[in-house]
Amino acid sequence: PRPILLTRHGESRDNVRGRIGGDSVLSDTGEIYMKKLANFVEKRLKNERTASIWTSTLQRTILTASPIVGFPKIQWRALDEINAGVCDGMTYEEIKKNMPEEYESRKKDKLRYRYPRGESYLDVIQRLEPVIIELERQRAPVVVISHQAVLRALYAYFADRPLKEIPHIEVPLHTIIEIKMGVTGVQEKRYKLMD
Ligand code: F6P
User: Fold this and answer.
1) Are 176 and 121 in contact, with CB atoms under 8 Å apart?
2) Potential cystine with 118: which of 6, 63, 76, 83 (Cβ 3.0-4.6 Å)?
3) Is the pLDDT score of 183 beyond 90?
4) Which long-range contacts (CB under 8 A, 24 or more apart) does 39-44 make?
5) Nearest atom, ligand 1, residue 21 CA
6) 125-152, pLDDT tens digit by residue?
7) Ligand 1 proximity of 171 Cβ (cutoff 6 Å)
């Protein structure tokens, strides 16, 4: 069965500052992951004739993919992180302090909550449909380098997890989730490349 490798980008400067959204570059730690991932992918796909690397259109995923050579790379806007609208670039603390009602509504119903001028998890799930169709169609392995909210939704689709769990699924940084779809169902393996 062909594998799908899911990973978040390497740690970004905004991750370090606790800022959501944005389009920052990688931190020093993120750059170490970038190199480890390239190494891992190279070994993992050594015997594959074809494969492709999918990223979002945001710098942090494109940079994370940059040292991987020998496979075509495709940028999908649909793989961009959840759009936090007016909260883009803020920390959770700042949202709690400056927009307490927004903070509370999100906490109450994280799946359906839509950031003002941004998106909800349900919006993200909907825009991922073409990506999922294309992933299902692939015969060769695909490495998907994306973001926390988007990968929660993608993972939930393949692991058959209920909708209401999606916003709470753990998708840590610097970890590769390998999904293999065979006749007997879906197999999953996690590779933690850094502490
Ligand atoms: O903090 C990293 C990040 O990818 C943000 O850009 C994004 O808003 C957030 O995670 C999504 O996670 P949650 O839905 O738990 O806020």
Assistant:
1) no
2) 83
3) no
4) 40/176, 40/191, 40/193, 41/5, 41/68, 41/143, 42/68, 42/70, 44/3, 44/5, 44/141
5) 6
6) 999 999 999 999 999 999 999 999 999 9
7) no
19 Cα–ligand 1 center, Å: 9
DSSP assignment string, 51-71: -EEEE-SSHHHHHHHTT--SS
Identity (one letter) of the amino acid at 105? S
Number of Cβ within a 10 Å radius of residue 17 = 12
Q: Are 78 and 128 in contact (CB under 8 A)?
A: yes
Q: What is the pLDDT of residues 23-73, one digit of tens each?
A: 999 999 999 999 999 999 999 999 999 999 999 999 999 999 999 999 999
Please say if 106 is a catalytic residue: no
With the most atoms of ligand 1 within 8 angstroms of its CB, the residue from 23, 82, 102 to mutate is: 82
Query: Could you tell me if the CB of 125 is within 6 A of ligand 1?
Result: no
Environment class of 93 (CB within 10 Å of its CB; exposed 0-12, middle 13-18, buried 19+): exposed
- The ipTM (two decimal places) reads 0.99
